[in-house]
């Protein structure tokens, strides 16, 4: 692992954390609002699945380009330009009612997200010393969970009281936090040198067996459980008969659990940051979904189950971030985060394709519990791969790979 800061720049870490909290809140506020709009307008699972697909497909498709851009372009320029564009697009969504146009604009927002996510992720290792990275990652993750925690409840209340326009305009303003981050951060990744571009071009996630197995494991589970994002609005609103406000609270409970888990993720001993730990955390989160979906008699019962699942999810996010940064040369951090994120998003897309038709055919309770069971089985199926993942870490002093 290599870090450029002699001393950790905690002011920059706090700035990124605060900006991410605001931006994530805006992203999820817009997504939850639009899901409620489509459901309330009588559109079925296919429409909601289409919305979620639009929010994820560009991230998967643009990963090769976005990752290289995050490593080669100036980070300040990327955050300012893309953040401004996302604010304009989200403001346009506030005045859009046609479902096809909504899906198209959500896809445009996702194109920007495919760039800003790896850009910010690659900046954090530059802000702190090696010994402080897990803590810094936990702070940023916790701030993101605060944004995620606030957004669903805020969307439920605002949609119920004012309609969809107000929350979407608030979401549009939140994207400007990325512009503020870009302008105020002292830490900055500038345009890459020829040597850095060679490292980035030669990077292949599959060449590191530890990262490859970790990515396969997480993606396999996400493929099994991503459909819950389509199922839960029907499960909570129709099967359990909850209001939009209660739906927002249930959705927020997962983020509340993540908020509790993320700070503790930095305390996992270094020797425990392994693919085996990742699998255990994945299985625990899926088990919480299975139990909650199968037993809940009211929407309120889902809250503790979702909090437990989110807790393990928070531990997982910090663990995967540390593994990626510890095994990839810093010149390729942007591409590494982009490729990993895209792989997980692509797996989620498979779940979205299946989810829409299933909502029309089966009871939502069966679908939610079945998705949890599928994720649990996927995690267990990856256990045999764990024994083959012991490899040395990559540092700045390691020989750079030769492109070819």
Automatic annotation (TrEMBL):
<feature type="transmembrane region" description="Helical">
    <location>
        <begin position="136"/>
        <end position="160"/>
    </location>
</feature>
<dbReference type="InterPro" id="IPR020846">
    <property type="entry name" value="MFS_dom"/>
</dbReference>
<dbReference type="Pfam" id="PF05977">
    <property type="entry name" value="MFS_3"/>
</dbReference>
<dbReference type="InterPro" id="IPR010290">
    <property type="entry name" value="TM_effector"/>
</dbReference>
<feature type="domain" description="Major facilitator superfamily (MFS) profile">
    <location>
        <begin position="1"/>
        <end position="189"/>
    </location>
</feature>
<feature type="transmembrane region" description="Helical">
    <location>
        <begin position="44"/>
        <end position="65"/>
    </location>
</feature>
<feature type="transmembrane region" description="Helical">
    <location>
        <begin position="306"/>
        <end position="325"/>
    </location>
</feature>
<feature type="transmembrane region" description="Helical">
    <location>
        <begin position="21"/>
        <end position="38"/>
    </location>
</feature>
<feature type="transmembrane region" description="Helical">
    <location>
        <begin position="278"/>
        <end position="300"/>
    </location>
</feature>
<feature type="transmembrane region" description="Helical">
    <location>
        <begin position="337"/>
        <end position="359"/>
    </location>
</feature>
<keyword id="KW-0812">Transmembrane</keyword>
<keyword id="KW-0813">Transport</keyword>
<feature type="transmembrane region" description="Helical">
    <location>
        <begin position="77"/>
        <end position="95"/>
    </location>
</feature>
<keyword id="KW-1003">Cell membrane</keyword>
<feature type="transmembrane region" description="Helical">
    <location>
        <begin position="365"/>
        <end position="386"/>
    </location>
</feature>
<keyword id="KW-0472">Membrane</keyword>
<feature type="domain" description="Major facilitator superfamily (MFS) profile">
    <location>
        <begin position="210"/>
        <end position="404"/>
    </location>
</feature>
<protein>
    <recommendedName>
        <fullName>Major facilitator superfamily (MFS) profile domain-containing protein</fullName>
    </recommendedName>
</protein>
<keyword id="KW-1133">Transmembrane helix</keyword>
<feature type="transmembrane region" description="Helical">
    <location>
        <begin position="211"/>
        <end position="234"/>
    </location>
</feature>
<feature type="transmembrane region" description="Helical">
    <location>
        <begin position="101"/>
        <end position="124"/>
    </location>
</feature>
<feature type="transmembrane region" description="Helical">
    <location>
        <begin position="166"/>
        <end position="185"/>
    </location>
</feature>
<feature type="transmembrane region" description="Helical">
    <location>
        <begin position="246"/>
        <end position="266"/>
    </location>
</feature>
<dbReference type="InterPro" id="IPR036259">
    <property type="entry name" value="MFS_trans_sf"/>
</dbReference>
């Amino acid at each position: 692992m290599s870090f450029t800061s002699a001393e950790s720049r905690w002011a920059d870490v706090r700035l990124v954390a605060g900006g991410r909290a605001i931006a994530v809140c805006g992203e999820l506020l817009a997504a939850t609002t639009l899901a409620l709009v489509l459901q309330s307008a009588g559109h079925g699972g296919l429409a909601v699945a289409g919305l979620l697909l639009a929010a994820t497909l560009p991230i998967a498709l643009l990963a090769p380009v976005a990752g290289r851009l995050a490593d080669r372009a100036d980070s300040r320029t990327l955050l300012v330009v893309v953040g401004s564009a996302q604010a304009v697009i989200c403001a346009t969504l506030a005045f859009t009612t046609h479902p096809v146009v909504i899906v198209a604009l959500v896809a445009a927002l996702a194109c920007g997200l495919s760039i800003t996510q790896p850009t910010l992720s690659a900046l954090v290792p530059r802000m702190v010393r090696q010994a402080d990275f897990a803590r810094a990652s936990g702070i940023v993750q916790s701030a993101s969970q605060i944004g995620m925690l606030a957004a669903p409840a805020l969307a439920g209340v605002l949609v119920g009281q004012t309609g969809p326009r107000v929350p979407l305009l608030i979401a549009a303003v939140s994207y400007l936090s990325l512009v503020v981050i870009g302008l105020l951060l002292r830490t900055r990744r500038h345009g890459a040198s020829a040597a850095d571009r060679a490292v980035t071009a030669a990077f292949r996630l599959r060449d590191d067996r530890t990262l490859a197995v970790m990515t396969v494991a997480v993606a396999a589970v996400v493929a099994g459980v991503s459909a819950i994002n389509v199922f839960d609005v029907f499960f909570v609103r129709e099967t359990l008969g909850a209001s939009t406000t209660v739906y927002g609270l249930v959705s927020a409970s997962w983020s509340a659990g993540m908020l509790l888990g993320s700070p503790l993720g930095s305390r996992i001993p270094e020797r425990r940051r392994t693919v085996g730990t990742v699998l255990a955390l994945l299985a625990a989160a899926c088990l919480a979904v299975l139990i909650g979906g199968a037993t809940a008699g009211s929407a309120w019962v889902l809250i503790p189950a979702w909090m437990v699942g989110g807790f393990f999810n928070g531990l997982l996010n910090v663990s995967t971030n540390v593994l990626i940064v510890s095994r990839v040369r810093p010149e390729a951090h942007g591409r590494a985060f982009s490729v990993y994120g895209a792989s997980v998003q692509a797996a989620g897309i498979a779940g979205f394709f299946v989810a829409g038709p299933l909502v029309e055919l089966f009871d939502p309770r069966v679908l939610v519990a079945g998705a949890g069971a599928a994720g649990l089985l996927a995690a267990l199926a990856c256990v045999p791969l764990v024994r083959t993942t012991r490899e040395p870490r990559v540092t700045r002093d390691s020989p750079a790979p030769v492109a070819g």
